[in-house]
């Protein structure tokens, strides 16, 4: 890992640890497909655990809707990708609401396995009030979920770069590099563009991580609208770029 990325991760972990809530801190790690969200969450986990606070790792991928519902508008539908992919009611009921204000602290990490296209009877787990949830996935800052986060991180990467990465990452799953590029151009990127237009996720993020060069990421602090009912994260200083020593 480069010193630039290490410094970036340390800074982001510190910002997360500075968020104070009387319940577990729910952190969204949002961004387009192949932006590096899962890698980022996995890298942050040990840094936060080092503080002594428990970490819950989960992904929106554990809350897919059944295949028939996801592709009801057609396999290449961008609108279907944005509107039909995930069961947000299940995500809230199983994970986000139990960890939020007045929640029971009893949660499930997932409810559905998209690989087998079947519901999952995940075990009920219990956590402490000072736990931190790191949940990665697409479309997390949409209206159905926006009030459920205590910190919002957006991983920003140009679509040209996410498509290049996806052609490598998803070629086996989607039937080859050419088919992966076709699917991204027809369904996934336009679905993200629809999300950007409707939800404006970068404007709602507390922190934007520019990850087009993973070795040299950059953090930019944001200022979400005050009427969303969430207190700003500790140390928020407006739209000021955090300088990373090089």
Which features does this protein show?
alpha/beta; 7-stranded mixed sheet; single chain; Rossmann fold; 9 helices; two-stranded antiparallel ribbon; disordered C terminus; 246 residues
The helicity comes to 25-40%
Number of domains: 1
Global geometry: globular
Uncertain segments: 224-246
Rounded average pLDDT: 88
**CATH superfamily caption:** P-loop containing nucleotide triphosphate hydrolases
Radius of gyration: 18 Å
Please tell me the CATH architecture by its name: 3-Layer(aba) Sandwich
CATH level 3 topology: Rossmann fold
Which structural class is indicated by helix and strand composition? alpha/beta
Number of helices: 9
Note down, in words, how this protein is organized:
With 246 residues, this protein is an alpha/beta fold. It has a single domain (3-242), classed as P-loop containing nucleotide triphosphate hydrolases (Rossmann fold), CATH 3.40.50. Helix content is 37%, strand content 16%. It contains nine helices and eleven strands. It has a seven-stranded mixed beta sheet with strand order 2-7-1-8-9-10-11. A two-stranded antiparallel sheet has the order 3-6. Strand 4 (112-113) and strand 5 (118-119) form a beta hairpin.
In short:
The chain contains nine helices and eleven strands. It is α/β, with parallel strands linked by helices. A hairpin with a 7-residue loop joins strand 9 and strand 10.
Topology:
Layout: H1 3-17, E1 25-30, H2 37-49, E2 55-59, H3 67-70, H4 78-84, H5 88-96, E3 106-107, E4 112-113, E5 118-119, E6 125-126, E7 132-136, E8 151-156, H6 159-169, H7 171-174, H8 177-199, H9 201-204, E9 207-210, E10 218-221, E11 241-242
Parallel strand pairs: 1-7, 1-8, 2-7, 8-9
Antiparallel strand pairs: 3-6, 4-5, 9-10, 10-11
């Amino acid at each position: 890992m480069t010193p630039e990325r290490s410094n970036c991760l340390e800074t982001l972990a510190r910002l997360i640890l500075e968020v104070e809530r009387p319940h577990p801190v729910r952190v969204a790690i949002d961004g387009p497909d192949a932006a590096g969200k899962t890698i980022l969450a996995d890298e942050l986990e040990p840094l936060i655990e080092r503080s002594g606070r428990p970490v819950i790792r989960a992904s929106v991928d554990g809350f897919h809707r059944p295949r028939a519902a996801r592709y009801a508008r057609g396999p290449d539908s961008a609108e279907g990708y944005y509107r039909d992919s995930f069961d947000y009611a299940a995500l809230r009921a199983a994970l986000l609401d139990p960890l939020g204000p007045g929640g029971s602290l009893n949660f499930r990490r997932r409810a559905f396995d998209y690989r087998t296209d079947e519901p999952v009877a995940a075990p009920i787990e219990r956590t402490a009030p000072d736990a931190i949830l790191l949940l990665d996935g697409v479309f997390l800052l949409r209206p159905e979920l926006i009030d459920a986060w205590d910190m919002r991180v957006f991983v920003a990467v140009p679509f040209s770069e996410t498509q290049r990465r996806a052609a490598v990452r998803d070629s086996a799953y989607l039937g080859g590099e050419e088919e992966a590029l076709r699917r991204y151009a027809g369904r996934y990127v336009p679905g993200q563009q629809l999300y950007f237009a409707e939800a404006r996720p970068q404007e709602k993020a507390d922190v934007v991580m520019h990850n087009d060069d993973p070795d040299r990421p950059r953090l930019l602090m944001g200022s979400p609208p005050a009427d969303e009912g969430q207190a700003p994260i500790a140390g928020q200083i407006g739209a000021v770029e955090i300088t990373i020593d090089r």
